[in-house]
Automatic annotation (TrEMBL):
GO terms for biological process: CAAX-box protein maturation; proteolysis. This is CAAX amino terminal protease family protein. Belongs to the UPF0177 family. It comes from the Bacteria. It comes from Lentilactobacillus kisonensis F0435. Residues 110-208 form the CAAX prenyl protease 2/Lysostaphin resistance protein A-like domain. The lineage of its organism: Bacteria, Bacillati, Bacillota, Bacilli, Lactobacillales. Keywords: Hydrolase, Membrane, Protease, Transmembrane, Transmembrane helix. One of its GO terms (molecular function) is endopeptidase activity. The chain crosses the membrane at residues 12-31, 37-54, 75-93, 176-201, 221-241. The keyword Ubl conjugation does not apply. It holds the Pfam family Rce1-like.
Amino acid sequence: MIIESRRSWVEQLFVAIIILIIFVFMAFALFDSGEVTYAKARLLFSLIVLFIIYREVGTFKVTKPRVKLSTNLKLWFMIIGISLIVMAWQEQLPSRILLNLNSTTLAENTMFALAAGIFEESLTRGLFFSIFLQNMQYRSRSLKFTRSALYSALIFGSLHLMNLRSGNSGAIIQQIFYAFALGVVLAAIRVTTNTLFWGIGLHFLMDWQPGIASTPSVATSWLPVLLIFGSMLVIGIVYLVKFDHAYEKQSRLTIS
C-alpha cells in the first residue's frame, strides 16, 4: 500500500544533503541582504525544492489507497486537532494573525512564512519522511510510519540550530523541542490526509506573524512548553503507533 518512490532512498538522501548544503549557504550569504530580498530568495528556493521533491518522490501521497481510520483512530485524530487548538490559544495565534494583517511588513512576513512552510514541510515531511519510510520498507521494520515520523521530526528540530546565531541558546533549545513535537504531529497529519499540503498550510499559519524574520527568539518558562508540546508529542506518537497497526492490518487483508 505504501507508494514506491521514483528513486531509491539512497539517491534521495544524496539529494536531501545537497539541498541542505545550499540552504545553509544561502541563509548565511543572504542574511544581511535586506528582508525583502531575503524573503523573495527564500520563497523562490522553497518552491524549487517543492518541485525537486515531487520529481524525486513522484507523488505527494504516502499510501494508495488512503488508510481507513477506525473509530478509535478518528477519536485520537480529533485529540490531535484539540491539542493544536490549545497550542494556538496558548501561543496567541489568532491575535498574532490580526496584528500581522495590519503590519507594515505584511508582504515580507507572508513570504517568509510561506517559504518556511513549503521548504520545511517539503524537506522533512516530504523527502526525509520518504527516505526513512523506504528504508523501513526495505528492512521490513515494524512501526514504519512512527519511526519515520520521529526521525524526520528530529531533523526538523535540528534545522532550528541555525537560529543559534541570534545568541539566545535557551530559546533555541526550546524551539528545537517544540519543533520536534510539532514535527511528529505534522507527520501524523501527513499520513492521515495522505498529502503534504495540509501540513504546509498549518505550518504557514503558525509562522505567519509580525517580525518573523527579524524578531529574536526569547526563552519562556519550560512548564507551559513541556505541558503543551510534551502532551502533543505523546498524543502524536500514540496516534502514529495505532496508525501503523491499522496499516499493517489493512495490508494483510489486501494481500489475502
